[in-house]
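Q: Protein A?
A:
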Amino acid sequence: MAILNKIRQRSLILILVIALALFSFVIGDLFKNSDALTGGSQDVIATIEGTDINRNDFMQKVKNYQERFGGGQSSTQAMNAIYNQELRKVILDAEFDKLELSVEKDEMRDLLKNSFSSYPEFQDQNGSFDVNRLNAFIANLKDVQPESVQLSNFQVNYESWANNENTIASNAIQQSYFNMIKAGVGSTIVEAKDEYLGESKTVDISFVQIPYTSIADSLVKVTKSEVQDYIKKNKEDYQVEATNEIVYVEFKEEASKQDEDNIKAGLMALVNDKIEFNDITKATDTILGFNNATNIEDFINLNSDVKYSDTYIRASQLPAVAKDTLMNLEVGNYYGPYRDGEFFKLSKVVGIKQSPDSSKVRHILIPYVGGNRADASVTKTREEAKATADSILGKIKSGTRFMDLLELSSDKVSNESNGEIDMAFNSSFAPEFRAFGFDNEEGDVDVVETSFGFHIIEILKQSNFSKTINIATLADKVEPSEQTLQDVFNKMSKFEIAARTGDFNTLAEERKLTAKPITFKELDETIPGLGSQRKVVRWSFNDNTDAGDFKSFSIAGFGFIVAKLVEKNEKGLMNVEDASITAIPEIKKEKKAKMIREKISGSTVTDIAKNQGLSARTAAAVSMSNTTLSGAGVEPQVVGAAFGLKVGATSKPVNGVKGVYVLEVTKINEAPALDNYTSYINRLNTARNGTIQSKIYQALEKSAVIEDNRAKTVY
């Protein structure tokens, strides 16, 4: 009791201690995640020129985008598309606001007229656009909101109409903005003349090329500091985004040899009858096997991963691995088990017959609403179309001529040929249509449904008969057993444990695993062969993940990988090791050029060529617009030097792409002045106008202040 009294006396102190501990925990967590204190970026996808892109709005647009494309794009692809769309909108809107560009009421009416003048709802009795009808329509939308109203072939409400107006206005402002810029960047006569001379003025030259390959690479050393200096001088070429390099090994969940043997044995066990004890009747039952099954279709559908198809097929339709054997079997004989793609199969020939390779039919098509290519004139439901087709079939069987009923068919193309169609076996007709023409006999007529509707088909003629077979196939998908899955998991786990103290690459080599390297940017998602794996990218870019760390990942439909973070590369200039791949050859080229220049002697091309043990070469009609020298390749520096020389003058050594050149101009072919350069001005303007919009936007984006939080908020 004394102890309880002491606890009661100190209860206030205990409460304070607990409260302080909780407060410390919360505050500590807040400081770990500064976003929680600042209102953070968790709800902000990006901040562009001071404008926040809200997460909820962004994700709704992503959802709408994916629905619009029917799920054909991954989440990351959709997010990238919406981000680029929002980025462009914010950047351009900021420019429009600075210039106070807007669409006024009268201009908006003109824009709406251009967009909707063809709609009957907005036309008078003469078919002319009536602005009063447009105004009345918009007013009615506002009055009945949020209800929708029919407009042409779709429904529209006031909100969707307002959004559409905003889009039309935005496009108009954007076009005005770009048009104003285009008006200020037209080509001048001076530029047109330069363009003309670049094509038409030519020079003939003689030259000697001392190739860089004349000096062995072993004679030219490049230091790390020289690479660093080269990177600094060529910063634009060596700017890189933040990247992470990882290396990973794969543990595939695939069937073992034992699994495959068990699958094949399981197929063979289905061939013969089985005796099983029935717990209910307390007697033994005989379970019919493949040999004696009385209903092949039911047997296959019950025991196979691929349903039975009661059709006669040609050799070309059989699996390549089995077709030669199957085509030579007698009825009742088996082939297999054999591997066909992701299945092991056991096939039995259940029928052989001669089938046509071509079939001539005629048909009457009765479409229904929702059928393939059904236009607005189609009004029948599926049930009504079926009843009509059955009625037509009844009339034909009662003696009415097929030709007399053709006017009921909606297939106007075949109607022009009396409804007749010639089909080759491999033609691309609807499968049900084609099957009827080849699986039945001349004179047969019946109703067949396809995605286009109901057809009344009559077989007129069949020809070019060849052997076909009907096979019943038991198929079992090749999948790993539970034991194999456990073995793969154990193998992965042991590797992961060993990697804590051992070398990742050495461990992989010892276990005959391939260590695969890959480099990610922060917003990448794909690993070749494994598809979208954002979780791996996110892990590698996590602030708590350091070079040398490793982690296992479960890959759906594949198995596991164990990945190791090799290196984190910050945004900025490329590191020396990576830059060396391209920098060292260029540095060596510069050094070789200096060495070549030092050993050049002679004052003419002929003398220099002779001293270097080379032959002087010539190039005729060289122009500024075509910088290719015959036998030497593209050499813009050399061609540029040629146009700076007078006839007979010899150049100083010129560093080219493939070597050091000395050249002499032997002839200048002047281009006659033109009376008019309009065609060149127009050509330059066309070329500029074709790229100006993208270049303007690229410049605006480059100069914009952008804080991109995608990798931390939604990716």
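Q: Protein B?
A:
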Amino acid sequence: MQWTNRGSALLLAGVLLALSGPLAVPTATGAPAAGAGAPGAPAAGAPGVPRTAAAPAEGPDPLDFAVVVDQSASLAEKDLARETEAAALLSQGEISERSRATVIGFGSSEKPGQSPVRDVCPLTVADAAGREHLSECVQELGRRDAARMGPGTDFPAAVRQAVTRLTESRPAAKGTPKVVFLLTDGRLDVADSPEYGTDRDTRQSNGARRLTEELARARAAGVQIWPLGFGSEIDRSALTAMAEGGYRGACSDIPGSVPRMRVVGTSAEIDKALQETFAAARCARIAQGTVGKPPADLTVTIPPIATDGSLTVAKHDPKVRVTYYDPAGRKVPVRGGFDGSTFEVSGQDGPVEALRVKDPLPGRWRVHIEAPEGHRDREVAVRAIWQGRLRSDVTLDPASPRAGEKVTVQVRMQTRRGVVITDPKQLAGLTASAEVSGAGFRPFDFQLADDGRAPDAKAGDVRFTGTFTLPAGATGDLELVTRMAAPGITSDRRPVHARRGPDVPVLTAGLAVDRVTVHPGGTVRGTLDVTNNDSAPHTLRLALQDQTPGAELTVAPTQVTAVAGRSTRVPFTVTLAAGTALGELGGKIAVLDTGDGDAVLDTAFLDVLVVAPPTWWDRWWKAVTGGAVLVLVLAVLVGIRLVVRRRRRDLTGTKLELLDDGRSLFELTVRKGQSENGSFAFTVDEPYGGSPMLRTVRGAAASTAHVLRRTGSGELLLRPRGGRQVPVRPGEPIGLGEHELVVRGGRVPSPRRNRPPRRPGPGTGRGGDTGSGPRTGPGTGSGTGFTSGTSGPPGTPEPGGSGGSGGSDPYDGNF
């Protein structure tokens, strides 16, 4: 958190000291803590004994805070109970085990034996034992003692007590933010407090003046005031004055983290409002979950960017029992580690319970609540307070700059689980800056941005870029520390060390790595361009740095020789292990000068996305699908052609009429199913003493019958029994033995080009109405046309006829 330049420097120094080795952390009184080597020290966790915890190397920054609760007579018992639960939510939901909390009740002092304030919980470290102690002592807020505290509202005394307790810090706590959360339902009321004067008016005016003085003291001590009022009797101007009168520093440059007052309608709203206020004050975020009465499953979502958090359960009744399940549906322990996370439950026997989680699995968490009969009437609410403390991955170009040279700094971020942040929405509102310090110049800051403006290459790629010019007076080692500020997000502020380069570079190197998508087991190509201005060759080493946990990468070659006085280009490859996890590949590649203590010459990010290898279907689905569609289309076309052809050849509905000298003797209609393959077989029966008739023939007898056939083009052909097939025109008689046959319902044949001349058929006509000329053939005769007539033996002319309707070669052959 960025509070002041001095505070940031002290905090950075504390981080560096913590990384350098174990320390004996003093208690609030300045004595070494138990376990740090102090003989005879009281046991940690004993009631009333200040405690401290070993500072996690990368845990959230600590916070010293006081919850100051109005216990004046204007509050109803239910209001006081809700205030108590709200105070418990803060003490149980704090995400840092190095934070300290105190709870103070206040009213007024109007007669001997009364005090305007009451230390309900002393300043206690919020580690596992401390949170249990806070869960117990905070319940004392619900017990008012009129003999020891008056019914008024003494704001000056409340602020003074809180500031005093928060400023009684141990030396190691210097620079830790100090915050007062004040709950009240009314306004300043010291009219009956003798210490403020002799009459009511004087006391009220003196109380207002005293409050201004106490706020000035808080401001000087670096203590923030965050007032929260509820009800209809709130003096908004007084709450605003308290927020603005205290220290105006904040945990970041974000406007929402600056102290401000807030008012809600009733005490039923203060638990939610107070937790939201608390999250704003410590640069955290709050996720609202679901509510329900036991038994029930409640849910709350923790985003991927969260690295530390607490799930708070406002259960109201200690009889409610809670079980926690991670997003994978697994029950998590109440203490200890599990699947890369660390868990700690507190407040199980109080009205508020909390599960503190380090490195939580992102996603929807399930909270199962149960309660015995008689304890299921109140709704239980779950919320999550979380913070993302990100690891910064920094590159400098050039890695070892010269004095007066412009340097480009690029930063990207990842969680402690190694998840690279690639979604810019998760970093909405984030501001980034960096501080450069070193020998020979005064430290200075510069901004980093992800807006696509030079020097930033692309907006929204979650790579924050900035530039600075190394001062001409720089003489030695350099240190760069990046800072990130956003609601719920802080950076680890790990320093990046570099050295001022020589005025004339002996070696210059440039790395370029392909931005590609690869499969596990694949390779990424890159090139190293190096210029050696020295008179001797240099041995360079390629190394992988800041790899994603679990990634197994190898680079080849590992050593490169930079030839003296020449520029060299060397291709290299980075090979991924077959078991490399899918997703964004973190880390970078660096080129080091082994002859200069592995001085870094250049670095480049591994901007690689690892995806699953394609399946057989992924490679060939287009060809398979296209082929299947083509086969289907061809099959449909063939099917349509067959159906059309079959329908075209179908004789169903065709009428056959037997004539004798133009007189109708018999009619026969081809029914459905009688026209097999476009053919219809029939005979002319002449019963003894009866008229000739047409009869359908099927089966083997069809080979000796007359056959009427329709071709695929719709033409009608008739093959008389024992004769050659001849064309038939619908409605025109054709000779059939001693009779004539007329076919109706057939299709008129389409004219054919280059049709060969027809040859006479076996029958001869007996007369003609129209014609186009003489016809010759086996049945010869004279005439001008062919319309009707009885067929005769082949070659037998009929008077007045022109010859039979002779067949032609195209109609010969088998059916």
